[in-house]
Amino acid sequence: MDLETKTETKFAKLESTIIYAEFDEALEILSSINYEFISLQQVAQLRIQQGKDFYFSKDGNWTKEAFIYSPEKGAFLTKSSPIIGNEREAVQTHRKGVEYFLTDEQVEKSLTNSVGLVGRKIPTNRFKENEITAFAFGEIAEQYGNFLYEYGIKEIPVYLTCFASRPFARQMKFMGLSHNSAFNSIGKFFGDIKKFEICGVKK
Length: 203
Hints:
Number of strands: 14
Number of domains: 1
Shape: globular
Helix content: 25-40%
Structural class: alpha+beta
Radius of gyration: 16 Å
């Protein structure tokens, strides 16, 4: 197993660690040391606390949320990723160069804790009012929007990919400040990346 770890860092209310491994292996390691996959809200909190020069701010982060693409229902951001818990199957599927397609049951379960998405930019001074960012960042939505606005980011993009004939999921890649803190579902499959940088927070 190709594995590296960084020294854990303690913050006000979050203790974090970084695992370097393939996606499915990284999540298994996090669970074994009693850490959980980081969320969008937790990444935003760390960026606010540590500032624009912190590596959490500069670099993008994979998070526990996912994109759901349904040709019948539309595109969604969910906090109940169907990939989590099935990450080994998802990685193996991606290695074949195809999407991680979902059953009807997986779609319905994912959509119970989700918000609809459109591929347009979201003003950072409207995070509290915007349905997507209010869902993603919860009680710190306005604070994170202000953090980005003060840095010079006036809006964040939502990068969506194309629909397929069947529903599928893609894990959230939360981009760093150099990429305007975008919500990104466009890019390489899990199978194309040999070593992920996966952040976990203490349970």
